[in-house]
Task: structure prediction
Amino acid sequence: MRKKLLTTVAAVSALALSLTGCSGSGGGGDDKSDGGDVTITMVESLTNPARTELLKGMLSEFETENPGIKVQLISPPTEQADQKIQQMLQSGSGVDVLEVRDLTVGPFSNNTWLYDMSGDLKSWEGLDKLTDQAKTVAVGEDGKSYYVPYGFYGLSLFYRTDMVKEAGFDGAPKSWDDLITQAAKIQDPTKNKYGYAFRGGKNSAGQVLSILQAYNADNLDVTNAYKVTSGKTIFSTPESQTAIDRYIDLFKTGSPESSVSWGYSEMVQAFTNGSTAFLLQDPEVIAVVNDSTLTADQWGVAPNPVGPTGKAAWPMATAGWGVAEASKHKPEAVKLVQWLSGDISTKFAKENSLVPILKSAGEDEFFKTGPWAAYVEMTSQPETWISVTEPRDVAWWTEWMQKSETDLQQVLLGKMSTADMLKSWDTFWTEKWNG
Amino acid sequence: MSASTDEVAERGRTHEAPPPRRRQFTKRTSLTILAYLTPAFIFVIIFTYYPLVVGGQMAFRKWSLYDLTSTPFIGLENFTTLIANPLFSKVMLNSLVWVVASLVVQFLIGFMLALGLRKKFRFRGVYQAMIFYPWAVSGFLIGILFRWMFNSEFGVFNDMLMRTGVSAKPIPWLANPDLALVAVIVANVWYGVAFFAIMILAALQSVPHELHEAAAIDGAGRWRTLTRVTIPTIRTTLVLTVLLRVIWIFNFPDIIYGMTGGGPGNQTQIATTWMIQFTQQGDYGLASALGFIVMGVLVVFTGVYLTLLTRERKP
Result:
């Protein structure tokens, strides 16, 4: 009898286990909860605790304004978030609204995981309230709308007002030449004082392209800032050769030797702890510097340094909110995306240090003063700081970032010439574009 | 655990095992056994072999995350692409240096710590806990911590070297192509010493005290006792721990990924960090092919290692 019982228990566990293994689809926020409410699931990607709290507050406001819709927020750790989102999209369930980045929109839309909101946005009054830049992202060149941006990240020059003054300069560098001169003058390794927080490590291409685009500003293809108007790559021009040599000068004369391997955290740390005078970074660093030991009169933000012709490009990275193709509650999901892209988006931009998406934000005192003034200056002078688009949605973007990082490090270590590096980059992009 | 392994091995050498008796199962008993085994089988198939087969077939396909609507079969192209890559030989060489250097130093320090901890002394438990602690920390976290400790301008290592006058200026540990590999190996040694210390200590504690007494009576000194009595007795544990560590270190990208990401200029790129790069590019085909190569290398190593050691043991 005992044996029979044990056999039955084992057989039942086997069956249960196999059923568990076979299940796994379904689930997610696609059910109606008690009381007839629709529950939609939203997943964020660039997660951090403060931002998650802010989002939760915003979502509860949305729920109050829209009775009958509940939102469940999922916040995976940033490093794994995009992979988690991809798995959720691939499984076809568990996500309604998601954070889409300019880096992920390509693969997500190619695999038909994203819902095209163009039909819904046509009748949306909020579309005309967006800045031109935001509108260009919200409605792509092909007329499709896979996401509405919530803000933009663009480089600007953080500088130490006190160190610049001590070195005998009137103010922040305006051009790359100024920056190289000032950084070299400030640099004094014996006192642990350095000019520029050079980025030689992960994602170093952003800063490299900044100087290349400034030197090629007169001939830049604004729709694809990796090309010049002749149709060739930006890496093929003589201006780029001059620019990259100047950039290596900046490393040799005005940056710490160890910055060959510096990524985001080392650069920002070097600026906030007072050892370097200049930092070319995104606006989210404003919040970090505000929380550091630096006092408000010790630092400032200047516009992107210009090239020899007095111009610079201003490429922007972005992310926003999109809807999953597999969502069973598309109307509610679109409603949430439109709401997040409305007036509340300015609050989100302020608290996350982002360039806002609404035209009305330009009138906001917050963005007109202090560190944000540089951004207003750049947006108000589009002929000097040319708004350009970079091909960040191409399939080989990560491969490019890894290649450019390795090649730049080889140059900094003296194992490759700048000419060979540019030639290799030119070949890489030309071959990729030619398929 | 290692003690019982040794004892069993010892018994196997000294006694003739009785001939196995064939036991007949009734149909009912067979069904019972099968029912008990089924959950384990299903579990292993779902969570080990199914992902292995699905992941494995990617190695023979063009499997790019960017476009999953078309994943055609391309034979061995992913493998030939990898081998033709100029980085391939460098990555394999780096992997070899990474494994051998980490393993040898970890083993020696771990062995010495285990010998030191074998005898009872005051606060031995506290010392043991302190030595075993790194094993409980995530490899990626260790990588990040050491990245800051090796930081040229604000790192604790340079601070100590400069304060003690060993170095007059900061050493760019992670930016120097020759020093970066040394730095990641130092971090790995710190992490891996604990494993050897734990395993060897357990084995040492199982060595019968009488053996040491007998050696002392025969006039053997400390070194002779160690090499002729202690090490041969714990040989099985040593062989297995070294084998396990080779496999784990080869498959362990966490510290390098956290510290250097394979840089500067691929100087610390090993097979598994390179694999991560392919997955980040969305090219799961190449990543999977590299996974096969890594598995192949380890299977060949394990086969050769165990064959050599078994042959050595035969009289």
